[in-house]
UniProtKB/TrEMBL annotation, chains A, B:
GO terms for molecular function: DNA-binding transcription factor activity; transcription cis-regulatory region binding. The keyword Nucleus does not apply. Pfam families: LacI, Peripla_BP_3. Residues 7-63 form the HTH lacI-type domain. It comes from Actinacidiphila oryziradicis. InterPro entries: HTH_LacI, LacI/GalR-like_sensor, Lambda_DNA-bd_dom_sf, Peripla_BP_I. This is LacI family transcriptional regulator.
DNA sequence: CTGAAAGCGCTTACAG
DNA sequence: CTGAAAGCGCTTACAG
């Protein structure tokens, strides 16, 4: 990166008139007290003067501790993930760790390739936001004793730490809210059932509103929400309220309601899920279940860090509270 | 990460009955033809059987090529940056590189610390989305011949490659659009003037609408936009159109317009800048200048990659086209 | 308290 | 075409 080779520990040692082993000890806070204070000071000064930057790569090779973890997400441009990633980064950084972030776009082959690339960079563990309920790659990872935790979604595998939102409670709150507004014809636009969030939210909906219409969306996207909402209104035209699998699906539903010449919340109320950024600025402002995404990321990082420190510790699952946030997309039934 | 030590090149070599140097050559596509085809095959099979994953760290130490670059952004949860980062990641990945992403939160000390940490991880160069017009850290980086490019914003330093939007043209389009709607009392809520985007957009505005009101915002945030819009209406209550420094500032202006009992676009038209995700779903849907952020990131990565390949190549600046996107927040003057 | 030596897992000029 | 050796920049048990 620079023309004249970056200074090494040996350069510093020579400048301070000591052996590089001593320089190493002086510069590492954990071993600094093994060297005479005056010597240590001389070394520190020399290091600063030369602009010495320790080579983390070399240290990692020697100690096999890279202070890096891999983070798998579906797609950074999905508004759900930036706050989660930020939470991960913040907590990791507090502990001197770095995140290596990759997008899988929901593509299994791509995920495998990225996973291998991250392993070749010797990350110490993984934070996985791409978990599916059945997940061959993660099954193998467990078998190979690779440290990882999942966030937002969980995998149906014992012994995997996870941080998830209390989706069952969130959906229950959403249904109760709609009921309190007088709605009785409530439908669910369910998320993909191969994801834990999709399955848990659907089950909670069925429990809260037995024998109500359900249409499954192919993905957590606006387009999928639009398709599903189309089907819903074809078969259940008298629906007055929708619990959407997430905010993007809700956006799709909103578009369909509008396209059919009806209005939200006057004719149909809609509740989203996640409280994505700027959901309060939408037209109409979206009533939705808030999930603490930054906290989710931070706790996920915390769990992994604990795992790395003590691989034998029991796998914890952290359930984060969901909170219904009432805005303009829900109103009393007419 | 696993209990039984991960297999090394030496393990593979032994399994295949060759020297590790030969195994190295066989497994590296660039040197594979230096070894007899049959031998190479045997080695490949052994590698796969053992589940060998090359140690990028060790390779990096030996070759001093880490295939990693540092990416500096203000804050990942600012909706401007995910598409830029995604563009960077995508292009980098195509070239076998990885991005190490850090947030600075606009804090200079933090930026310095992160920069040093990234250097200690021996990134080969930097993609900087945090550039200020005067930027001591970047000035030093130039002096130390560190490879870097800026994206979105530029630094007033010669020889630094940059990818920026055509902000002057974007603002010119915005003003022309408002003029065509009959507006004559047009104001600018300018971005921070220590950033190139803030300065360029302001200059273009002053050129397009000489002696029109301008209020500078302290930051590219909704809160700053609210404050600035408050000042604007205090002094220029008859303003009928606003060109906002960016979409977040526009959102602040919208809130103030509403709070003053007036309505957008009926009483005041507002044009944003950036076309942030979901700007079309806002109330009202935001007329704004679209900037190709994914492309911006991709080109930034491309520029850096070229720089790394040929450090002597001249510093290019790429100007990406801006395109006014008319939606619901602008209307004919009453 | 400090030094000398070994070694982390690779790659690559140098021999043969 | 393959092997033996050196070395990338560190850390750390082992001596002294």
């Amino acid at each position: 990166m620079t023309h004249d080779r970056a200074p090494t520990l040996d350069d510093v040692a020579r400048a301070a008139g000591v052996h590089k082993a001593t320089a190493s000890r002086a510069l590492n806070p954990a071993t600094r007290d093994q060297v005479r204070a005056e010597t240590a000071r001389r070394i520190t000064v020399a290091a600063r003067r030369l602009g010495y930057v320790p080579n983390t790569i070399a240290r990692g090779l020697r100690t096999s501790r890279t202070a890096a973890v891999g983070v798998l997400i579906p797609d950074l441009t999905n508004p759900l993930f930036p706050p989660i990633v930020r939470g991960i980064q913040d907590r990791l950084e507090q502990n001197g760790y770095t995140a290596l972030l990759v997008n899988t776009d929901g593509d299994e082959a791509r995920e495998r390739a990225e996973f291998a690339a991250l392993r070749s960079r010797r990350v110490e563990g993984f934070i996985v936001a791409t978990a599916r309920r059945r997940h061959p790659l993660l099954t193998e990872a467990v078998r190979e004793q690779i440290s990882f935790v999942t966030v937002n979604r969980s995998v149906e595998l014992p012994g995997v730490p996870a941080v998830v939102g209390d989706d069952a409670d969130g959906v229950t709150q959403a249904v109760a809210h709609l009921r309190s507004l007088g709605h009785t014809r409530i439908a669910h636009l369910a998320g993909p059932q191969d994801l834990s969030t999709g399955a848990v939210r659907l089950r909670a909906f069925q429990h809260a509103a037995p024998s109500s219409p359900v249409v499954e969306c192919a993905a957590y996207t606006e387009a999928a929400g639009r398709t599903a909402a189309g089907h819903l209104f074809e078969h259940f035209a008298d629906t007055t309220a929708i619990v959407a699998g997430n905010d993007l699906i809700a956006l799709g539903a909103l578009a369909v309601i509008c396209a059919r010449g009806r209005s939200c919340p006057r004719d149909v109320s809609v509740v989203g899920y996640n409280d994505m950024p700027f959901a309060d600025r939408f037209r109409p402002p979206l009533t939705t279940v808030h999930v603490p995404h930054h906290e989710m990321g931070a706790q996920g990082a915390q769990l992994l860090l604990e795992r790395l420190r003590d691989p034998g510790s029991p796998a914890r699952t952290v359930l984060l509270p969901a909170r219904l946030t009432v805005r303009g997309s829900t109103a009393p039934v007419r």
